[in-house]
Write a structure and sequence with these properties.
The chain is an alpha/beta fold and about 300 residues long. The protein has one domain: Aldolase class I (TIM Barrel), CATH 3.20.20.70. The chain is built from nine helices and 13 strands. The strands form three sheets. The protein has an eight-stranded mixed beta sheet with strand order 1-2-5-6-7-8-9-10. The chain has a three-stranded antiparallel beta sheet with strand order 11-13-12. The longest helix has 14 residues. It is globular. About 45% of the residues are buried. The chain binds iron/sulfur cluster. Iron/sulfur cluster binds next to loops.
């Protein structure tokens, strides 16, 4: 499978069947916490990257045989940079009742065409890690054309128009956006955006930059300032499905490229193919990383 992966357990969407519509690391941000590494293709124009009919064909094949709580547009970069996303959402809704979610950095919601494209999704979760320009530039390292004020205005507009479930996600990173000043700015933006809820997360999988997740003081401060709209989400639980893969090697490469896995998760996953961790020694590009006292595996190959 080239465009569809999983289902993988998601902290907010249950078993999530991923759809990737973007070539590896194409984004208009290069967040310090990005688990995919530094953005290698930093662009801000929307384009069609792959034949949309091929993506739809794969989704149609997979939904016939797997169960999932959501079909989620996410993957290897920012999905709203793909200008086929609206067409894909509308076409997928014709073939399945599985709710559609979009995980986005929210940076293009100021554009009317992007708001229109996401209108038919069931759940939209944009991120908002900063609401002042200085923190925004430091944590999200955005394309130079993007301005946080315009992005927040786009989220306000989207919140007014959109009829589905609309949540904001904040990734709290120690020393970046966990100060009183940064959190008060986010609070003030959230009061205007008026989402249905707010998820507060800390990086639980290893990014490539040297950053640390917010500690308990940062999390407490965020709760105290942002109020009871905020949820701290625990690490995900649940199975990684083998359904989309023809071999253990293909599964390991596809999943670990987009979704670093803890050692215990990977052991259980490989067991389903009758394999163990020794398989990893035969795959070039696998890296073993220690993060927050746990061992993770990532795939850095092509
Ligand atoms: S917006 Fe998402 S894909 Fe883009 S750099 Fe940030 S975390 Fe990575």
């Amino acid at each position: 499978m080239r465009f569809v992966y999983g289902p993988v357990p998601s902290r907010r969407l249950g078993q999530s069947l991923g759809v990737n519509v973007i070539p590896f690391k194409t984004c208009n941000y290069s967040c310090v916490y990005c688990q995919l590494g530094k953005t290698t293709n930093l662009i801000n124009e929307r384009k069609s990257f792959f034949p949309k009919e091929e993506i739809l064909k794969e989704v149609a094949e997979v939904v016939e045989r797997v169960e999932a709580d959501h079909i989620t547009f996410a993957g290897e970069g920012e999905p709203t940079l793909c200008n086929d996303i609206g067409w894909l959402i509308r076409e997928i809704k014709k073939i399945t009742d599985i709710p559609i979610a979009v995980l986005t950095n929210g940076s293009l919601l100021y554009r009317e065409d992007v708001r229109y494209d996401l209108a038919e999704a069931d759940v939209v979760i944009p991120s908002l890690d900063a609401a002042d320009e200085k923190t925004f530039r430091r944590i999200n390292r955005p394309h130079r054309d993007l301005k946080i004020e315009e992005i927040i205005d786009g989220m306000i507009e989207f919140g007014r128009e959109y009829r589905g479930r609309f949540y904001i996600e904040i990734m709290l990173v120690k020393g970046y956006n966990d100060s009183e000043e940064a959190l008060f700015a986010i609070k003030s933006a959230l009061e205007k955006i008026k989402p249905n809820g707010v998820y507060l997360l800390t990086p639980i999988r290893p990014p490539t930059s040297k950053i640390e997740p917010a500690d308990e003081f940062g999390i407490m401060r965020a709760h105290a300032i942002l109020g009871d709209v905020v949820d701290v989400i625990d690490p995900e639980i649940g199975d990684f499905s083998t359904e989309c893969f023809s071999s253990a090697e293909e599964a390991v490469k596809t999943l670990l490229k987009r979704h670093p896995m803890r050692e215990d998760q990977l052991k259980d996953f490989l067991k389903k193919f009758g394999k163990d961790l020794s398989l990893l020694e035969t795959i070039e590009g696998i890296r073993r990383v220690e993060y927050m006292g746990k061992i993770f595996y990532v795939y850095m190959g092509q």
